[in-house]
């Protein structure tokens, strides 16, 4: 298939280190995790996380509507507004029928569902919110963005666990390719820092147990890594066919060159030990982009800091890219933003392409001996990066890889 | 009636981010751009905080804030004088 080039013309982010793309980039470059004890998690074995702080989300979203939105919806809406403004677009003047919204999430409003369950159990049906369902369903980020921006084209919410963000970008790219829309608002959002989810991650063995300063706990690819640290946030991009972007005078941040997706079909939480199916996603993305492995200048790794993921992924990277391109893993700083992670990391990869700078992996001195990969540590590394990939390997074995390219 | 029950003002400004300057005795939920879902949520909060039940569509949607204040004050008073009789939500 002869695909049109797809451009990233706008980017918006809200993360534990910043409420915007620029502040998030600065925070990730600084390489310091904000993970800290969360008062709402009092009594949980895992009572810390990287959270979005220092912003009144309801004020930022605006009156009369925030009450019906879960935290994950508010994140998505704020990131979408930033992305659309960044793209130089104004929803007051666009043809909304040609605008699609594709915003993924892994757990949607499970936090809101839990609150409503408690209200129902303790105080009865009259104590529950008439918006209870809106607070829980995963498609509301896409729906609320569409309402806010009068985007009447197709909208949907891809759900592929921790790779939901890359899946959303991939689906949106396909919709642009097929002509289903002219503008796609695409990305992902997540907010599940609440006792039930955190207890579940603790009990599943995926979360790093408390051990000293939480900010030091997420150390992707380190020999002494013990598990993931929870994060939250959203990243949204505006995608357009590059030709359309050019004709309206927009300056793209980057191009989506290819995507690839596979499923381990092995185990709900453990990656397939051979990494062969995840590797097939990498190969599919490279094939889709028309690249050879040695074309890849940089790998933005999934890098969760769990013993199993990082071992499998390090082996995969050293085999798939034998020329040892520099590797970063933003979860060291941001924690694992779950369904949003793939979109956040794709966004950071776009910024690396633009700025020629690879952020360091937080809390890492050197990768575990035996991991034959070139990890960026301590400080950002200046590098000419023309082509980069971002890996997302989700629970359920849902793998998605995106290949991103500089515009010039 | 020229005063507004403080809980009404608190909920409108806090939960619904209605600018305080727009909250006047003669304002209605409609004039404050509170849609039916927002008014239903408002009713739940009033019920949960003051114990006053109401059919939000009937009693709050088109009423002025002065009317709603009068309704809440009366309901709270009668609940206090007949503490064992729950406030009906069907009247």
Structure characteristics:
heterodimer, A: 408 residues, alpha/beta, Peroxisomal Thiolase, Chain A, domain 1, 2 domains, 11-stranded mixed sheet, two-stranded antiparallel sheet, B: 91 residues, mainly alpha, Non-ribosomal Peptide Synthetase Peptidyl Carrier Protein, Chain A, 4 helices, acyltransferase activity, transferring groups other than amino-acyl groups (chain A), transferase (chain A), Beta-ketoacyl-[acyl-carrier-protein] synthase family protein (chain A), acyltransferase (chain A), Thiolase-like (chain A)
Question: What topology emerges from the helices and strands here?
Answer:
The complex is a heterodimer of chains A (408) and B (91).
Chain A: E1 6-14, H1 21-30, E2 36-37, E3 48-49, H2 57-61, H3 71-86, E4 99-104, H4 110-123, H5 140-149, E5 155-156, H6 164-177, E6 183-190, H7 195-204, E7 233-241, H8 242-247, E8 254-263, H9 276-289, E9 298-300, H10 307-320, E10 326-328, H11 331-334, H12 341-355, E11 357-358, E12 374-375, E13 381-382, E14 387-393, E15 398-405
Parallel strand pairs in A: 4-5, 4-6, 9-10, 9-14, 10-12
Antiparallel strand pairs in A: 1-7, 1-8, 2-3, 6-7, 8-15, 11-13, 14-15
Chain B: H1 6-14, H2 36-50, H3 56-59, H4 65-81
């Amino acid at each position: 298939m002869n695909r049109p080039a797809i451009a990233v013309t706008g980017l918006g982010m809200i993360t534990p280190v910043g409420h915007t793309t620029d502040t998030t980039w600065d925070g990730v470059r600084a390489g310091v995790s904000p993970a800290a004890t969360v008062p709402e998690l009092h009594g949980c074995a895992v009572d810390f996380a990287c959270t979005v702080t220092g912003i009144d989300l309801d004020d930022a979203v605006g009156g009369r509507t925030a009450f019906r939105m879960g935290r994950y919806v508010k994140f998505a809406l704020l990131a979408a507004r930033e992305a659309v403004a960044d793209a130089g677009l104004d929803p007051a003047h666009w043809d909304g029928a040609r605008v699609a919204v594709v915003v993924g999430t892994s757990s949607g409003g499970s936090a809101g569902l839990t609150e409503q369950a408690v209200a129902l159990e303790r105080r009865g049906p009259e104590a529950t919110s008439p918006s209870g369902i809106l607070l829980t369903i995963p498609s509301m980020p896409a729906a609320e963005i569409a309402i806010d921006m009068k985007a009447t084209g197709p909208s949907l919410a891809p759900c592929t666990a921790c790779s939901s963000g890359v899946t959303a970008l991939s689906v949106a790219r396909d919709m642009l390719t097929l002509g289903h829309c002219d503008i796609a608002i695409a990305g992902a959002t997540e907010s599940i820092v609440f006792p039930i989810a955190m207890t579940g991650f603790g009990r599943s063995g995926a979360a790093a147990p408390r051990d000293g300063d939480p900010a030091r706990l997420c150390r992707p690819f380190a020999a002494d890594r013990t598990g993931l640290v929870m994060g939250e946030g959203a990243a949204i991009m505006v995608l357009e066919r590059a030709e359309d972007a050019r004709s309206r005078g927009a300056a793209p941040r980057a191009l989506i060159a290819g995507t690839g997706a596979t499923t381990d079909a092995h185990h709900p939480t453990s990656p397939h030990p051979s990494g062969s199916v995840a590797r097939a996603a990498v190969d599919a993305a490279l094939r889709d982009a028309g690249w050879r492995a040695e074309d890849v200048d940089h790998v933005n790794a999934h890098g969760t800091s769990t013993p199993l993921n990082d071992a499998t992924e390090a082996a995969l990277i050293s085999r798939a890219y034998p020329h040892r391109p520099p590797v970063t893993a933003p979860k060291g700083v941001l924690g694992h933003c779950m369904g949003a992670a793939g979109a956040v990391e794709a966004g950071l990869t776009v910024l690396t392409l633009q700025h020629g700078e690879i952020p360091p992996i937080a809390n890492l001195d050197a990768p575990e001996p035996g991991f034959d990969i070139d990890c960026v540590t301590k400080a950002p590394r200046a590098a000419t990066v023309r082509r980069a990939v971002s890996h997302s390997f989700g629970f359920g074995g849902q793998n998605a890889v995106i290949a991103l390219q500089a515009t010039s | 009636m020229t005063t507004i029950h403080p809980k009404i003002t608190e909920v409108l400004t806090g939960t619904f981010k209605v600018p305080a300057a727009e909250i006047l005795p003669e304002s209605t939920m409609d004039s404050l751009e509170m849609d039916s879902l927002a008014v239903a949520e408002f009713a739940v909060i009033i019920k949960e905080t003051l114990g006053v039940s109401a059919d939000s569509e009937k009693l709050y949607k088109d009423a002025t804030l002065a009317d709603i204040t009068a309704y809440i004050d009366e309901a709270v008073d009668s609940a206090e004088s007949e503490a064992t009789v729950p406030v009906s939500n069907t009247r």
